[in-house]
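Sharing a chain and its predicted structure for anyone who wants a worked example. Both blocks are below, sequence first, tokens second.
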Amino acid sequence: MCGIVGLHLREPSLYPRLGELLTGMLCQVTERGPDSAGVAVYGDPRWSPPGESTVSLLPGGAPADDVATAVRAVLPEAVVVDAGQTLVVHAATDPDTLVAAVRSAVPSAVVIGQGEDLAVLKGVGHPQALATEFGLPAAQGWQGVAHTRMATESAVTPQGAHPFSVGTDQCLVHNGSFANHATIRRELKAAGAVFDSANDSEVGARFVAAQLAAGYDLEKSLKLLCERFDGFYTLLVSTRDSFAVVRDAIACKPAVVAETPQWVAMASEYRALAGLPGIESARIFEPEPEEVYAWQR
């Protein structure tokens, strides 16, 4: 099963409503994945202040206050925001420096997102309760992606929840399964990739990140994924500049896209789109098999 929702806002006047709208969308697909959930938000000033970098992490059981003290001992200007099972750290430095500081300060922590505009929040529990825990309804920004998980390939843990963000300002959510993920995992490990979970979706995320790092754009990276991966899937992948959807050759996993001059949205079910402003005049369609649909900011 699993449920995917995503919202790319074109109209700046809607930016303050991103979290409200994304929460409504997420809550409409909770039955598709009651095990765990996660969100990725681009542009919220609480988590990603302008001019600063952000790192999202799972603290490995360490109390938030202890993590904040340890991080500030390494990087005094860092701010740690408690979002339940996820902590968000931001500071006026580059993403790589911030990631290194967090890992040095809290070696047991798992970094689940990094960038200049991106905050990733995820955890185990009912998706509606997690949205409240994250503070998602109050979020602002221009783009958001969310996922509800029904585990099939790995354990129900925060690390196994989506989105998977393994490159700067990048994330991926996935409904379906990859049949040959173990083979591709071995290839990526041989090339130096380090994995944080046994989830097959993380293999897809790291494959896409490797293609982007090699210089391909998002559309080409997803076409290469379709060529290389076997299985049944719908993917929604985002960067700070792009928002893209692709389905496998059979397209048996559901997906609906709606587009207006004010926004583009994607969901596993139409009911997740029904509350969006202007939906009555939207262009609504089902993505074709193996065709990459991409929108630029």
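Comments welcome. The mean pLDDT is 95.
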